[in-house]
């Protein structure tokens, strides 16, 4: 039997006859050879999720660890206008992401390598950390942050695409949530560790710690086994020609070969990008941007990430100075403030991802963003440091929860728009985050330095950003938007009828339809059927 993807019939039908196609000679099978060490767990969805989660954690750790100590370092080096200079260093990181994201996404969409770029990225990250640690002139610090942003691009595009290519659709939100938890882990441990190491051991200590973490990350990335690696091993073991086990087009249909000695051929399943390539559906970078812009659901996800970047970016270069000027606290204490605020978000990603899988992202994004609004103005209060920390923690938790389902949203969009793959969507999301954090850091730093009440300006800027995104989330987020659920019951009933009919004709997709995670439009993932 061969699994085929017929691009003329978008619905999988039960009860069809199975066609047996085998490859390889009819001679006795070669003696079994040992698979690569740990092949099962090294290629498992959970290990891949762990690697990407550690990658995001390492990325955020290396980015955030200097935030509470950088102003003190610049003051020691004799610089003035510290908030503005700090903002430009954070901007350089975002610029690296912006410059490299789409070239990397375009190349690795056409050439679906995953492990090699992930390994190269962490090596570049380590080199950039060494440069930043030893830098004396300000411009070398800017260059090192730019390189760090370039390395960050890979884990946020290639890494998350790797998850989506190895996880069942009904569990994508959960697995992305676990990977997104790396953001919370990194942002939780970085500030207190950075502050404590800087106070105790000096400027080099935080970077030595980051280099050690990167080394661990590098080892785990080296262990990742892609489907292509397993396929090549079996081709060599069975004495087949290179590419013999690779899906191919036969009589207009994409056929996944099946060999008698390979009862499990899951490693030969096609990724979204591979299906598009074989079917002739490939878009230029400009066409990708146009296709993304036409999806209200996709654009809402990107703008939600943009809003998150504005809020986080505007507070990063200013919060340290605010706590220092108002309560005269050291970098070590500022790190503890970040820890208290970020710790609750550690559990946010997996929980929110699982809830979004089950109930839909629309029930998460809008309520959480609305609930985040009251906490921002409370950060203007000056009397209680404990109250300030609590308010910051609630705001950070709720904004993070509103952002978390964006990964699931862009994945669902990529599977409903021909020519768009997960790597495109995550790259676009990475661009949105890079541009918004760049704008946020520059705007926040300049407002804090040059306005009479700079902190209030930063807070109201963040408040306005959060308010602006709520209408888009209300009208467009989720498989069925909150607006349609509340005010267009007829359309919802019609959608339910369509889904029940689809479930009756496609028993294998009952669970996904019941969870409301599938689009009614044909997707590349729905083009699979057995003939």
From TrEMBL:
Q: Where in the cell is it found?
A: Membrane
Q: Does the keyword Hydrolase apply?
A: no
- List membrane-spanning regions: 46-66, 86-109, 116-134, 146-164, 176-197, 203-224, 333-356, 363-380, 386-408, 428-448, 454-476
* Residue segments, region Disordered: 496-531
User: One MF term from GO for this chain?
Assistant: transmembrane transporter activity
Alphabetized Pfam families for the sequence: MFS_1
Report the leader peptide range.
Answer: none
What are the GO cellular component annotations?
A: membrane
Membrane topology annotation: Multi-pass membrane protein
Please identify the protein, giving its name as recorded.
Major facilitator superfamily (MFS) profile domain-containing protein
User: Sorted alphabetically, which PROSITE patterns does this protein's record hold?
Assistant: MFS
What residue stretches are annotated with the Major facilitator superfamily (MFS) profile domain?
Answer: 48-480
Predominantly, its location class is: membrane
Q: Where is the composition biased (Basic and acidic residues)?
A: 496-513
What keywords were assigned to this record?
Membrane, Transmembrane, Transmembrane helix, Transport
Keyword Transmembrane set for record: yes
């Amino acid at each position: 039997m061969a699994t085929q993807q017929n691009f003329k019939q978008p619905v999988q039908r039960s009860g069809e006859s199975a066609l047996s196609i085998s490859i390889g000679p009819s001679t006795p099978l070669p003696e079994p050879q040992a698979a690569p060490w740990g092949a099962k767990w090294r290629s498992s969805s959970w290990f891949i999720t762990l690697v990407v989660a550690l990658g995001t954690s390492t990325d955020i750790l290396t980015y955030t660890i200097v935030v509470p100590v950088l102003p003190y370092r610049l003051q020691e080096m004799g610089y003035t206008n510290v908030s503005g200079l700090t903002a430009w260093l954070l901007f350089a990181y975002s610029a690296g992401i912006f410059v490299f994201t789409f070239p990397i996404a375009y190349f690795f969409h056409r050439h679906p390598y995953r492990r090699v770029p992930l390994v190269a990225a962490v090596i570049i990250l380590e080199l950039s950390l060494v440069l930043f640690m030893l830098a004396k002139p300000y411009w070398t610090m800017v260059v090192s942050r730019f390189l760090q942003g370039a390395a960050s691009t890979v884990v946020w595009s290639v890494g998350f695409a790797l998850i989506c290519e190895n996880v069942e659709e009904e569990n994508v939100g959960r697995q992305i949530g676990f990977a997104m938890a790396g953001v919370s882990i990194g942002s939780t441990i970085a500030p207190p560790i950075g502050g404590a190491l800087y106070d105790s051991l000096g400027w080099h200590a935080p970077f030595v710690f980051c280099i050690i973490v990167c080394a661990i990350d590098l080892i785990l990335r080296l262990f990742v086994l892609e489907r292509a690696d397993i396929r090549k091993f079996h081709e060599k073991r069975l004495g087949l020609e290179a590419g013999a086990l690779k899906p191919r087009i036969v009589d207009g249909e994409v056929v996944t070969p099946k060999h008698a000695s390979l009862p499990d051929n899951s490693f030969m399943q096609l990724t979204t990008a591979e299906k598009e390539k074989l079917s002739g559906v490939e878009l230029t970078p400009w066409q990708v941007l146009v296709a993304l812009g036409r999806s209200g659901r996709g654009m809402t996800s990107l703008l939600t990430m943009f809003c998150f970047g504005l809020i986080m970016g505007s507070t990063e270069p200013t919060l340290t100075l605010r706590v220092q000027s108002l309560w005269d606290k050291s970098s070590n204490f500022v790190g503890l403030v970040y820890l208290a605020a970020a710790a609750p978000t550690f559990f946010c990603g997996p929980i929110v991802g699982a809830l979004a899988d089950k109930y839909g992202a629309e029930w998460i994004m809008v309520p959480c963003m609305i609930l985040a609004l009251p906490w921002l103005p409370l950060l203007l209060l000056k009397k209680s440091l404990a109250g300030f920390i609590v308010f910051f923690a609630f705001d950070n938790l709720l904004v993070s929860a509103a952002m978390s389902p964006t990964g699931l949203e862009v994945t669902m969009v990529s599977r409903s728009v021909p020519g768009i793959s997960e790597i495109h969507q995550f790259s676009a999301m990475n661009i949105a985050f890079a541009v918004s954090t760049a704008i946020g850091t520059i705007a926040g730093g300049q407002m804090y330095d040059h306005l009479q009440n700079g902190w209030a300006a930063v807070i109201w800027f963040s408040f306005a950003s959060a308010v602006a995104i709520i209408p888009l989330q209300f009208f467009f987020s989720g498989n069925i938007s909150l607006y349609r659920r509340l005010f267009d019951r007829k359309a919802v009933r019609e959608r339910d009828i369509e889904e029940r009919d689809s479930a009756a004709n496609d028993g294998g997709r009952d669970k996904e339809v019941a969870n409301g995670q599938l689009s009614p439009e044909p997707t590349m993932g729905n083009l699979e059927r057995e003939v």
